[in-house]
TrEMBL record:
Protein's UniProt keywords contain Signal: yes
One Pfam family it belongs to: PAP2
Domain spans labelled Phosphatidic acid phosphatase type 2/haloperoxidase: 123-224
CDD domains: PAP2_like_5 (cd03394)
Signal peptide positions on this chain: 1-19
Keywords carried by this UniProt record: Signal
Name recorded for this polypeptide: Phosphatase PAP2 family protein
Length: 419
């Protein structure tokens, strides 16, 4: 009798435990399903918002204009890079480069290459764009009275050449970007080169160029929007599959790197002198090749320039320069098919040229540096996008008499070609 009772109890216990395990498994599956569903819904909502007409009109132009206003107080640092490495640069190619994308666009149209718009619709779109761009640029030039870096006049802000170049690049990309990703890459590369040449020619500050680029892009987006309201479906060609986005694409990229340096520490040159830098600027290129959606290898080359303060009060005339080349691992996680978060872990080489202070010289030095960072990437088109980053670098001291390291943050954005 006892054996029967024990068996019945054992069977009941086993059945209860099995039922409990089954219920736990079902609940776990439901939680996993809910989590996946929540992630998928978030990704879909994020992509839906990113694909809206309003967002597509604003996502580059507005950040560029805001960025131009933010870096306005740091214009001297970026000009310092120009003065250190291109002090005698004087070329007039930018006077013609600003129109190059428009010239190619009109040439292709005249040759009969099919574009987004008919002749009438394209000319109306471009006229709206040019009137908006010209009106905004000239109004700001007359009202802000910002002196040019070379002191020639007070019509520096914003850069009209850069606004024109980015306006024509956006026109060209809208009309013929469906033909090849290299249409947009080439057009915006020419526009970017125009802006950089305006700074190299000492005609504009960085804030002028960034704001001008934003005005050029935004004016074209609004100009085409007005024309679309007028013409609706008349005189437009639709091209299927112009942009394809897959959440599991490998996020390999090459980008132009522009950042604002924020120093976090100082060090002693010797027993009598403490050395620290103020905020400064970095420019260069960065890229990475990914093996899968999550892990890749790459590198970064930058030239940095910052002002020097000695013993907490003495500002030096010369600037502190650093040239670095780093490589290592890059990591990415796709929030959606168009938005990604990333990080990296780098190590490499840094070179400090000889530094002349008021009462002494600090000899040139090479050293080992390490870096990391976080980023947020938006894939604007299938083959190019924009990336916002916050990088951290651990740098050796310039002085051989110091064993201390410098801690540096760099906040910035980069325009990237993806492949």
């Amino acid at each position: 009798m006892k054996m029967i009772v024990i068996c019945i109890v054992g069977i009941c216990s086993f059945s209860f435990l099995s039922a409990q395990n089954l219920a736990d498994n079902v609940m776990a599956e439901r939680r996993d399903s809910l989590r996946i569903s929540t992630t998928t819904n978030f990704s879909r909502r994020l992509d839906k918002f990113s694909s809206s007409r309003f967002y597509q009109m604003m996502y580059i132009g507005i950040p560029l204009m805001v960025g131009g206003l933010i870096v306005k107080n740091e214009d001297d640092h970026f000009r310092g890079l120009r003065n250190d490495y291109l002090p005698r640069f004087n070329r007039h190619l930018d006077d013609y480069m600003q129109y190059a994308p428009a010239a190619v666009m009109l040439g292709m149209k005249a040759a009969g290459v099919q574009s987004r718009s008919s002749w009438g619709r394209m000319l109306v779109s471009d006229t709206f764009s040019a009137l908006l761009m010209g009106g905004v640029v000239n109004t700001l030039k007359q009202t802000t009275n910002v002196e040019r870096p070379d002191g020639s006049n007070k019509h520096s802000f914003p850069s009209g050449h850069t606004a024109t170049a980015f306006m024509t690049a956006t026109m060209f990309t809208k009309e013929y970007g469906h033909k090849s990703p290299w249409v947009g890459v080439g057009a915006y590369s020419v526009a970017t080169a125009t802006g950089l040449m305006r700074m190299a020619n000492n005609k504009h500050w960085l804030s002028d160029v960034l704001t001008g680029a934003g005005i050029g892009i935004l004016s074209t987006e609004v100009g085409y929007y007005f024309a679309d309201l007028i013409f609706r479906e008349k005189g437009i060609n639709r091209f299927a599959g112009e942009d394809r986005f897959d959440r599991m694409d490998r996020p390999s990229f090459v980008s132009l790197y522009l950042g604002l340096n924020i120093p976090l520490s100082s060090y002693d040159i010797d027993e009598q002198m403490e050395f620290r830098t103020s905020s400064g600027s970095s420019a260069g290129v960065e890229g990475a090749c990914f093996f899968n959606p999550y892990v890749g290898v790459g590198g970064r080359f930058t030239v940095s320039n910052t002002l020097i303060i000695v013993n907490e009060e003495q500002a030096e005339n010369n600037t502190f320069d650093a040239i670095s080349l780093c490589g290592g691992s890059y990591f990415s996680y796709p929030l959606s098919s168009r938005w990604l978060i990333g990080s990296k872990l780098l190590g490499g080489y840094v070179h400090y040229p000889q530094l002349e202070l008021t009462d002494r010289s600090v000899s040139a030095r090479n050293g080992f540096c390490m870096g990391s960072g976080v980023s947020l990437t938006f894939k604007a088109k299938e083959y190019y996008g924009i990336r916002f980053f916050l990088d951290y670098d651990l740098l050796p001291s310039h002085s051989r008499n110091s064993g201390e390291y410098m801690n540096m943050l760099t906040l910035g954005s980069s325009f990237m070609i993806t492949f």
